[in-house]
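Field log, afternoon session.

UNIT: design team B
ACTIVITY: writing a sequence onto a fixed backbone
BACKBONE:
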């Protein structure tokens, strides 16, 4: 785990909207398309990867976010030990997937910041800075999308009606957090 400054120093509260950074959270990119890949990944994750576009699947420990027909982001649902860059799941997947040439496993924990947004005004905020139409998205818990938010690439995971996980590249996270803070004042 890299030692870095958080994008948000503390949880920000705005009119019925809270924003906080959740870390350290394990984030892995998993790629593959062979039948044996899906069988092996399912056994190791104890769940089936979502195959329908813009969906996710979860169990108690992890969530799998669909990114493309052969790519998923695996995200831990629990905060990890911040003193180590080693994850047991990553090692298991690497040994069973990458080493056997079934697919690829890449640790992107330090590349992406995970923000948790909670409140009734989330979609009003998103609509003010994104070309994506959130009308159907906000009604589907588990839905995911990759879009632009204030001209910054983000991945949005709908946890439920008023709770969103937003993934942004670390290099753009401070700028995005500033935009969220400024824009939330006008909701």
């Amino acid at each position: 785990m890299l030692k870095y400054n958080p994008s948000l120093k503390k949880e920000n509260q705005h009119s019925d909207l809270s924003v906080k950074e959740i870390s350290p959270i394990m984030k892995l990119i998993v790629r593959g398309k062979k039948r044996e890949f899906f069988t092996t990944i399912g056994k190791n994750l104890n769940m089936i990867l979502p195959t329908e576009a813009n969906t996710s699947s979860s169990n108690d420990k992890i969530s799998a976010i669909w990114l493309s027909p052969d790519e998923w982001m695996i995200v831990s649902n629990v905060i990890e030990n911040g003193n180590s860059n080693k994850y047991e799941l990553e090692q298991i997947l690497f040994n069973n997937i990458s080493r056997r040439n079934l697919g690829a496993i890449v640790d992107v924990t330090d590349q992406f910041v995970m923000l948790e947004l909670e409140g009734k005004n989330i979609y009003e905020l998103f609509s003010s800075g994104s070309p994506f139409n959130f009308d159907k998205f906000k009604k589907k818990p588990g839905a995911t999308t990759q879009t632009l938010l204030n001209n910054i690439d983000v991945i949005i995971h709908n946890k439920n009606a008023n709770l969103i996980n937003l993934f942004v590249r670390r290099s753009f996270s401070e700028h995005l957090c500033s935009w969220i803070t400024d824009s939330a004042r006008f909701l």
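LOG NOTE: The chain has two domains: 12-22+112-184, 27-107.
NEXT ACTIVITY: expression trials, pending approval
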